[in-house]
């Protein structure tokens, strides 16, 4: 149990998917202008990462590994993620039109979020068992949500700050991302 | 031979199952939409270029029917097609009133 808690903490801060592993940078910079859209995107990514990691883990261990064709994993994982996002989209459209509208174009864009494929492949490379896989993908995606949200908060504040003209907009956002990454790099000393 | 056949069969099998699942989900969670949207999309160029400011032709069609955008905002549309689209929208708004 304590091993799982350690794994959860490591996934949440130490190995943070955005600031330490540099995956999923596109939505991190693109959808972080407003807190509400950052939150919506983060929740959608949590949902897709946990679901796709579970399905790809099962597929890898019960089909690809058994037939000794593990080199097929990348193409199979991409296929699963694309189909899954499509289904989530249809499902959301029916169940929650408000959330569907709020996420808009970012929902189909999750297909190309490299964090989703990244987590699926890390789970295989690290040899996680089923429980470890569930904990790892849940907390790494929650880490994504957490970082997205604080970054969006900082960017909302930045809009009203006296930033030098040359740094306005994306340049200052990149500098903030770099400082955040340095802060998160220090967590590496804890474990 | 078997080295090629097994991966091909596995991949097409997974693709088939996923396609079937999408079909079932689509049938089960089908949302009734205004049939006019599809008719307007037919009249648009369907490039999904985004030059009008909407993420795609579907969103543009919805905005056109809500009177939130004008047909001329579509950049790549041909002149003849624009006339047909304008006529269609005029008729649509007349019938609506």
List the SSEs and their pairings.
The complex is a heterodimer of chains A (191) and B (97).
Chain A: H1 2-14, H2 25-30, H3 35-64, H4 73-95, H5 97-103, H6 106-109, H7 114-125, H8 130-158, H9 170-186
Chain B: H1 2-28, H2 35-43, H3 57-65, H4 79-96
Helix pairs in contact in B: 2-3
Proportion of residues in β-strands of chain A:
under 5%
Order of helices and strands of chain B: HHHH
* CA distance, first residue to last residue of chain A: 17 Å
* CATH superfamily label of the largest domain in chain B: Electron transport complex subunit B, putative Fe-S cluster
Q: SS-based structural class of chain A?
A: mainly alpha
Gross morphology of chain B:
elongated
Helix content estimate of chain B: 55-70%
Number of helices of chain B: 4
Largest β sheet strand count, sense and barrel closure of chain A = none
Number of helices of chain A: 9
Task: Please count the beta strands of chain A (DSSP E, at least 2 residues each).
Answer: 0
* Through-space gap between termini of chain B: 67 Å
CATH C-level class of the largest domain in chain B is Mainly Alpha
Biggest sheet details of chain B: none
The count of β-strands of chain B is 0
Mean pLDDT of chain A: 87
């Amino acid at each position: 149990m304590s091993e799982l808690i350690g794994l959860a903490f490591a996934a949440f801060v130490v190995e943070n998917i955005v600031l330490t592993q540099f995956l999923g940078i596109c939505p991190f910079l693109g959808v972080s202008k407003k807190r509400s859209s950052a939150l919506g995107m983060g929740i959608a990514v949590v949902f897709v990462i946990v679901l796709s990691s579970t399905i790809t883990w099962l597929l890898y261990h019960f089909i690809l590994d058994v037939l000794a064709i593990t080199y097929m994993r990348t193409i199979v994982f991409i296929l699963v993620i694309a189909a899954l996002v499509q289904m989530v989209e249809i499902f959301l459209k029916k169940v929650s039109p408000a959330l569907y509208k709020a996420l808009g174009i970012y929902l189909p864009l999750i297909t190309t979020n490299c964090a989703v494929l990244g987590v699926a492949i890390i789970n295989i490379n690290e040899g996680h068992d089923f429980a470890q896989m569930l904990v790892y993908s849940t907390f790494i995606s929650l880490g994504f949500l957490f970082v997205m949200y604080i970054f969006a908060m900082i960017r909302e504040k930045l809009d009203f700050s006296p930033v030098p003209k040359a740094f306005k907009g994306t340049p200052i956002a990149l500098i903030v991302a770099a400082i955040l990454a340095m802060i998160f790099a220090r967590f590496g000393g804890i474990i | 031979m078997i080295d090629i056949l097994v991966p091909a069969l596995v991949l097409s099998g997974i693709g088939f199952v996923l396609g079937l699942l999408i079909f079932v989900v689509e049938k089960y969670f089908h949302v009734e939409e205004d049939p006019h949207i599809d008719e307007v999309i037919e009249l648009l160029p369907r490039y999904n270029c985004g030059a009008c400011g909407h993420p795609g032709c579907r969103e543009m069609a919805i905005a056109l029917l809500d009177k939130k955008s004008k047909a001329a905002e579509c950049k790549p549309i041909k002149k003849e097609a624009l006339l047909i689209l304008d006529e269609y929208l005029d008729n649509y708004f007349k019938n609506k009133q």
